[in-house]
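Dear support,

I submitted the protein below through the web form. The confirmation email said the job was done, but the results page showed an empty box. After a refresh the structure appeared. I'm attaching both so you can tell me whether what I see now is the final result or a partial one.
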Amino acid sequence: MGRGVRRSATAKAEDTIRRVAARRSGRTVADIAAGAGVSKATVSRATSPHGPFPSHRNRQEPASCWARRRRRGETVASIARDVGVTTGRVAAATRLYGPFPRGRLTDPSTAAHWAEERRRRVPAAEIARRCQVPISRVYDATRTLGPFPSPLQGAAGTVSLRGISRMSGVSLPALTLRLRRGTLPDPAGHGPRGWPYWNIDDIQDWLAASTLPACPLCRARVQRLDSHLLLSHTTAPAHPNHVGLP
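What the results page shows now:
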């Protein structure tokens, strides 16, 4: 019997702690009582000694607190769950304090990495697919780090020969020759008109492992850097996609 009493007292203490926290977050006695299935008198009697609590006539304090949490990237659902109110109540109370970031905030290192990929013309949809995040999160995280060049055209996760040329700085004729020689990664497939396309991850791995030096002036990948500099950068500006054939 004694154990049963102790357990009951512990449960009551835990209920009181939760209800006091709820009242301090701005919930009304009636709201707490309805959610717990008890009378308003029960809630008031258990929590009143632990007051004072925010006035229900002026909810500016909890609303501004919730707004600060939303600016830090917390979602409406997580705030509502934490303070024990509905998501609609949090959204309505903080609406005038917006706008707020959508979804969770992205850490700066991840945002910088996504921005670098977008500068290499990787589509935002492909970044979102690979990282398993909404595309809106990629746009929000990189918006202030742009502008970015137009993304490579093609199905999500794939890139054409022209896209490889833009990514690598290697000219289309040189890439076509490499394709014929079999020194490019195997295509992932062919489009309706017979043109090949590649998985963008395969091309990025191929570029990372490339042993061809990059021209310090135009970033073209060339087999003989000395010849390229002599022919392309001594008499006239080089075309950005000009490359010596391997």
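Response: this is the final, complete result; the empty box was a page-load delay. The chain is about 55% helix and 5% strand.
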